[in-house]
Design goal:
Order of helices and strands: EEEEHEEEEHEE
Structural class: mainly beta
Number of domains: 1
Number of strands: 10
CATH topology: Cathepsin D, subunit A, domain 1
Strand content: over 45%
Shape: globular
Radius of gyration: 14 Å
Helix content: under 10%
């Protein structure tokens, strides 16, 4: 299935349309446009969405931003759906300030993706 880049950014950003859900329950939130962040180790989800589905808390941690600053975070577990696939038990960082979902490598490494920059589209290929 093809997903178009988000043209509200310059340059346009690759994105996927996803659904979120409590682990092993229905994917009840979404669809959301989620930014593909190939440089990010982890996936970040706004805390308000995690609260809405009651995502289970996993652990406290620390992450370092691309500017080198450290920040305390909380990790949660959610199921993420894309193109009819359900990827279970993805650990995500709860972001109390942000409004965007950033899909990091812990999620992206579970998919076979083709980022087609000139066409400004992302193809999710068969597994």
């Amino acid at each position: 299935m093809k997903h178009v880049y988000l043209t509200t950014y310059y340059p346009p950003m690759p994105a996927l349309q996803i659904m979120l859900g409590y682990p092993s329950e229905s994917l009840k939130l979404g669809p959301f446009e989620a930014i593909i962040d190939t440089g990010g180790d982890g996936t970040i989800v706004p805390q308000a969405l995690l609260d809405e589905i009651g995502a289970p808390f996993v652990d406290d941690g620390r992450i370092r931003s691309h500017w080198g600053e450290w920040r305390s975070i909380q990790l949660f577990t959610v199921d993420i759906g894309v193109n009819g696939l359900r990827l279970p038990a993805i650990e995500v960082v709860g972001d109390e300030d942000g409004k965007e979902i950033l899909l990091g490598r812990n999620f992206l490494n579970k998919l076979n993706l083709l980022l087609h920059g000139p066409a400004q589209q992302v193809d999710v290929l068969d597994r």
